[in-house]
Amino acid sequence: MTDYSKYSFWMETCGESLTPRSALTNSIDVDVAILGGGYTGLWTAYYLLRANPGMKVVVLEKEIVGYGASGRNGGWCSSKFPVTPSMLERRCGRDRARALMLAMNATVDEVSCVCQEESIDAHFHKGGILTLARGDHQLPLIRSAFDAYFRLGLHQQYELLTAAQAQERVRVSNICGALYAKENASLHPGRLVRGLARAVEKRGGVIYEQTEITEFKGGPTARFISPAGEVRAKRAIVLAGESYLSRLSKLHRALLPVYSLIALTEPLSDQKCAKIGWKDRASLASCNYTVDYLTHTADRRILFGSRGAPYHFGSKISDDQDRHAETHDRIEELVIEWFPMLEGIKFTHHWGGPVGMPRDWMPMTAFDPASKIATARGYTGQGVSTANLTARVVTELIMGRKTQLSSLPIAQRQSPAWAREPFRWLAVRYMQNAFLRIDGAGKQKRPKPADASVAEYLGRH
Ligand SMILES: Cc1cc2nc3c(=O)[nH]c(=O)nc-3n(C[C@H](O)[C@H](O)[C@H](O)COP(=O)(O)OP(=O)(O)OC[C@H]3O[C@@H](n4cnc5c(N)ncnc54)[C@H](O)[C@@H]3O)c2cc1C
Question: Among 193, 379, 389, 394, which is best to mutate for testing ligand 1, by the most ligand atoms less than 8 A from CB?
Fold first, then answer.
């Protein structure tokens, strides 16, 4: 039997048995059937059941609840959205961009409220995010992000910090300034996803694990097909499998699976904590294209995550890709580069997983009343809070309600498909390589590579 605790520190320490629930054994009829036992699927089941007690809702999960990104992430529950505020403003106009950002801000508290109501001890702690400019070349990036929030009238929640002010909150090397964002919490992802599953079951939802959906069909009764039988749904089937949806032939080019990898240190002693001076467990990020994200866990470890592991031809996803020696070595080096006073610190865990990236970086939710097919997906590594918001939106869409949520710019939209192979592989590998080269040049205070503007234009989001 698979040892699911090996997939992440969070699954290992979620505080409950990971023995799978029962699998589907025969065909069944329900009101709503959901593919995916991660945050998206479980939040959708939760809000549907909360609004409609007695509704027959099932969640179908190939492995176990939390097997995917929801049980492996960096623990940032943040108001950060995959598309930058200035790009959002350009795409949807000021008012709609502002409405979406406000909804993201409120989502952080919504997650906390449900955790309290449902007694989910997810170690939720609201300490904000510090996006650090490490090197003068990154200062314009945090200034322009702040200007965009200012234009949207949201600047009260953000603060530009000087190098000295930032150093008072954490002693990271080479800080030239920082942008502080209030609306962010860090949490224990495994405890959240496993607790949510229990909350769904408490409200009458049924979760089948070890049940792979191989095909879906829309119609007056929409259907999921698995080797054990069909799940026929009167109201809706919901595709909530994020990056793994690319394994279904009909959705193969909808999302690109991109691996994000994490290294975790041993718990820090009092002395080491004093040396790094990390206040209030704020989440940390750099402005690098390779995306560095750090969490100070409740048990005082440093979690350092980053991208850069190579994309595999044909959007392949496999357990072998969860660990990539070159990227994990680079992450360990980064920990010491950021915190030179921690030289010699031990790393206890290494893991990773795929994030689902849409072609336009924009998360989407949709429900077609004719085919009864719904979906919520495409968070590009920002799904801990966003999945709660998309689940509430998709719930409104399925229930046919016209509300503020169902008119957000993430509602009823489609992202363009990714290119076919080998063009997809060529383009993605080029971008990954260009981002590593641009970050490397910045770090070594060298001029950007000659093709930087091309890569920056293509990677603009
Ligand atoms: C290493 C890493 C770090 C991250 N860090 C952060 C972070 O700090 N903050 C943040 O906001 N986001 C982060 N993310 C992203 C975030 O975790 C995801 O966006 C979010 O968990 C997506 O939730 P989901 O339910 O949509 O997908 P998932 O959690 O991936 O769940 C999908 C589930 O569907 C199941 N499934 C798929 N296909 C089928 C099928 N055919 N049949 C049955 N079941 C199926 C899978 O087994 C899986 O359990 C990170 C992701 C990774 C991988």
Answer: 379
